[in-house]
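Handout, page 2. Input:
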Amino acid sequence: MLCALGAAVCFGTASVLQAVAARAAEPGTGSGVDTALFLRAVRQWRYLAGLGLDAVGFVLQIVALRHIPIYAVGAALASSLAVTAVVSARLLRVRLSGLEWGAVGVVCAGLLMLGLASGEEGSETGSFALKLGLLGVAGLVLLVGAAAGRLPDGSRALVLGLAAGTGFGVVEVSVRLVDSLSWQELRNPALYALLLGGAAGFLLLTSALQRGSVTAATAGLVLGETIGPAVVGVAWLGDTTREGYTWLAVLGFAVAVAGALALSRFGEPKA
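Output:
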């Protein structure tokens, strides 16, 4: 859980740094899948620093996913929105109200409940159909991102963030389905789902952060990378809770995600 929380700090800080860089870059094609925008943004030190934090966060995320259930990791990563809001207050001059600070406390309370209730990660290896399905979802993320580029700025940021979160959610599940970096894994669709989902997530999140609200984009990110992977972990990979504490795990998950979404509702620059 400490590794998952460390990953959340890295990802939340990286989102703000990447938002600053993306907004400073010249506008691209307007598509949600804009490689030109990504290449312009990556020339800036803030975006590179964000990528470095993402890399550290990804390593911590892998460690967490190898030891605790996906639903616990996903809820911990949802707290990255609290980090984003706090860092935005310094770098993007966004004032946090009492409600927003309260939402940060709600997220922390939910994570505490999850930490108390989490059991061991499941031992299921996942079917070949599940691995193919993940690859299909990763491809669908790119299609949704391309279409979302035509939406108005407000809904565009949310939809692109949701699609990016789904891509990162594919990565979360795929990590559990890739046993090792061996030649045999080259025949594993989950490996390609991991690569495609991660690449799609980065492209779409960069586009989402250029226009619209950082917190709106990250709210979509939270939804995409928590709910779906949690369901897959419990239903198909055997993730469990401590005996008699299922209710606390469900409550903690709901409270943590609700707190994160509350931040996305109130965490906007005030006119």
